[in-house]
Design a protein that fits this description.
Layout (H helix, E strand, L loop, with lengths): L1 H9 L4 H11 L2 H8 L3 H15 L4 E4 L2 E4 L1 H24 L10 E6 L1 H18 L4 E5 L6 H7 L4 E4 L8 E9 L1 E6 L11 H6 L1 E5 L8 H6 L7 E6 L5 H7 L4 E4 H5 L7 E5 L7 E8 L6 H17 L2
Parallel strand pairs: 3-4, 3-5, 8-9
Antiparallel strand pairs: 1-2, 5-12, 6-12, 7-10, 7-11
């Protein structure tokens, strides 16, 4: 026990947040930006941590840093320990947006990013100029794991994530519509189901072998659409549709705010489909985090202001 205490006293605990940032970013430059440190400062701190722990911890690769087995073993314990400290601190501390240097990581689809990012950044620049926001794609297969281990603060998703330990809050309800080019010769506002499945489509790429997000939202995993083009983001769909004879299913809000709106026409879905619900999803370990609560309230404020 005495030996363990002496070992702990010899470790610079200030290096542990740096270690978690390097583990989660697996890239020196991104970790430095997240920590608001220079790259040389992070490199020097990593050298000290390697000496203290007696392991390389990370191996340089063409794409960044690859954790060693020792780093992977340490990460879960270090992360959990830091989370307990942060939670205890958050319970006692108020959040001052004006002076905070918090770095938030969100996961959202392209449509949400396109519609929300301009307003969010405008508000952050006015209310919290030191807060950084990182929006990542919703195509990652490990969204739940990243919420659980702290690599993501918040997910904004149409697709439910019914996992233990995750909290959900409705953000808005959205209708899906079918879009086509305004001059499409076979498209009309009273589109039938047979016409819908026989026309050629552009669609989001499948996610996690569960069909595309559209199939998941519609509850038709095997919806017999003739998809000619798969794209990674909703934002790519309106310009493709406006320029071709392909059709697509997209959220109504995306059409309403698209620069291509004048070149598009819409029709309701030719089958019953209730409005889809956009949700905020986070891990229960963030429940008492005052900064996290502030971000969630800011996102709800966006919905209230836009009337979505």
């Amino acid at each position: 026990m005495r030996e363990k205490a002496m070992s702990l006293r010899s470790l610079d605990l200030n290096l542990l947040p740096l270690f978690t940032a390097l583990m989660e970013e697996q890239h020196l430059t991104r970790a430095a930006a997240r920590l608001h440190l220079s790259q040389p400062a992070v490199s020097n701190a990593l050298k000290r941590l390697r000496l203290q722990l007696g392991d390389d911890l990370f191996v340089r690769t063409a794409s960044g840093l690859k954790p060693t087995p020792r780093a992977l073993q340490l990460y879960a314990k270090v992360r959990d320990g830091l989370e307990l400290i942060e939670q205890g601190w958050a319970d006692q501390q108020s959040f001052d947006a004006a002076t905070s240097r918090r770095h938030f990581r969100l996961c959202a689809n392209g449509a949400v990013e396109y519609l929300a990012a301009p307003w969010l950044m405008q508000q952050l620049r006015q209310r919290a100029p030191g807060v950084a926001l990182q929006i990542e794609t919703d195509q990652s297969p490990d969204i739940v794991q990243r919420l659980q281990d702290g690599r993501l603060d918040l997910a904004i998703d149409y697709v439910d994530q019914p996992q233990p330990g995750l909290c959900h809050a409705p953000l808005l309800q959205e209708s899906l519509v079918v879009i086509a080019a305004r001059n499409h010769p076979q498209f009309h506002s009273d589109l039938s189901y047979d016409e819908f499945i026989h026309l050629q489509h552009v669609s989001l790429s499948p996610r996690n072998r569960q069909g595309t997000p559209i199939e998941q939202l519609l509850g038709h995993k095997d919806l017999p659409r003739q998809v000619q083009l798969w794209v990674s983001s909703f934002v790519s769909i309106p310009p493709v549709v406006a320029s071709t004879d392909l059709i697509a299913v997209v959220p109504q809000q995306l059409v309403s705010h698209s620069l291509w709106q004048q070149l598009l026409q819409t029709a309701p879905l030719p089958f019953a489909c209730p409005p889809v619900e956009l949700q905020l999803i986070w891990h229960q370990s963030r429940e008492r985090d005052q900064a996290h609560r502030w971000l969630r309230e800011l996102l709800k404020e966006l919905v209230n202001l836009t009337g979505a």
